[in-house]
Amino acid sequence: MTTLENRPNTALLVVDVQNGAVAGAHDRDAVVANVGSLVEKARQERVPVVWVQHCDEELPRGSDEWQIVSELTPVDAEPLVEKNYGDSFEDTTLETVLSGLGVGRLVVVGAQTDACIRSTLHGAFVRGYDTTLVSDAHTTEDQTAWGAPPPDQVIAHTNLYWSDQTAPGRTAGTVEAKDVDFG
Q: What are phi and psi of 125, to 5 degrees?
């Protein structure tokens, strides 16, 4: 279990499910629907939902691209962390938010698989969090023009390698949305 002391709780971490981040994403509607169902499940089970919202030149604060997608609506009581780097912990309030909630385990969903999702997974894991990636609730856009594999292969590879991560005193892995257990 987590190496973070006195942190028995789990949180759903929703990373960058913003208009501009998922507009051209692979299987966008299914991924957003899976994220939405997990948000509802977390709320029903009184599990904290923590939202992360990226801001940069392509996603300027306040723009339509920067907004969380219309299918998902954070509630006022749910923390929203703004970030400027791939790792959601880097130069943000995320660690303070999670510490205040007693969270030592994260269930991670969102975009982009090959950027902010991977960076956040690794950032959480090295900081001592147990970190689960929801295999059918993250996505990325097609980067094949720049030499990357097709998005479905990027997603599959990320699911494969995250399911085999190990470190002393921490757990990692993947799970399908239908099988998420926040307990």
A: -60, -45
